[in-house]
Design goal:
Strand content: 5-15%
Order of helices and strands: EHEHEEH
Distance between the termini: 20 Å
Structural class: alpha+beta
Radius of gyration: 15 Å
Length: 87
């Protein structure tokens, strides 16, 4: 998007909620932009413990248009796997 351009919606944050909202706006042809202070997955990559993982099973990871497709649906994604999923 060009500097000074206008869009209908600004999404602040490129986490799970922001990415989900962007997906649905795209499906509805609504022009929007996602603003993220750092690179995708920054909070998970840089501000979480190495051993941090989700507390919900992998099968519940259902970003719109990108469901979990790994081989351990009842497991729990570790930090690096979460970052990869978001990217």
């Amino acid at each position: 998007m060009a500097l000074g351009a206008h869009c209908s919606v600004v999404i602040v944050g490129g986490g799970q909620a922001g990415l989900s909202m962007s997906y649905y706006l795209t499906q509805r042809n609504v022009d929007h932009i996602v603003l993220e202070r750092d690179r995708i997955g920054y909070e998970w990559r840089e501000r979480r413990w190495d051993s941090f993982c989700l507390v919900t099973p992998n099968w519940q990871c259902q970003l719109p248009g990108f469901p979990y497709d790994g081989d351990d649906p009842d497991g729990f994604m570790a930090r690096d796997e979460i970052v990869g999923y978001l990217e």
